[in-house]
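During the reporting period the student researcher (J.K.) took over the structure-prediction task from the postdoctoral fellow and processed the backlog of single-chain submissions. One of the processed entries is reproduced below for the supervisory committee.
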Amino acid sequence: MVLCYHAISSTWPDVLAVAPAAFERQLRWLIRLGYRPVDAATAVAGRGRGLHVTFDDAYRNVVEALPVLERYGVPATVFACSSYAESGRVLDVPELVERIRGHEAEAATMDWQALRELAERGVEIGSHTVSHAHLTRLGDAELQRELVESRERLEDELGQPCRWLAYPFGEHDDRVQAAAARAGYEAAFALRSAVRTRWTLPRIDLYRGDSLAWVALKTSPARTAVLAARTVLERRRSGNES
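J.K. obtained the following structure tokens:
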């Protein structure tokens, strides 16, 4: 099981910002259910009842999660956009502009030094592309630049391999998956993907306000079965329409 969070904050009321206390309750509950903390490579391999935590966008407030992660021994991966790491500026993609108004400090991202300090504490750093673009909308050359440049810059700045990619907005298709493979990644994480391949690794996205009951539903095998059935139905419907 791979969880996907974004910000960790008690003061930013956005859906992306999970309160530290809620974050701890969720991890503690899953570990009590028998999930075993594992690193990203083990999660990619998909063996056993493993638990790995990821954070998209590399918000500065993710450091609020570190004491909880370290207390429970849960490895984590943070996915950063290389262009934002230049200065640690606010993640000002169009989808967030109105939502961050008045909370700009909460939406600030980690700069290179902050990412280095995170890596020194054992957190793995992966790529979230250069600019958090909608990859499926890009031409081939721009798509490849977003993937290759971000990986290379992260490796240069942090002095360690950048093995994993997380698709911005969870968006991908066959062309994007093939481009990720060509760009030198070992695997790529999606969101609610019913089909698990090395380039469509599913994650469970959790948000502010998710109760433990809702987390239980999101993480249950029944949810996975429903997603798989829906995917099959959508493919059949698409085939009939074509």
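The committee noted the following: The two ends are 35 Å apart (CA to CA).
J.K. will present the remaining backlog at the next meeting.
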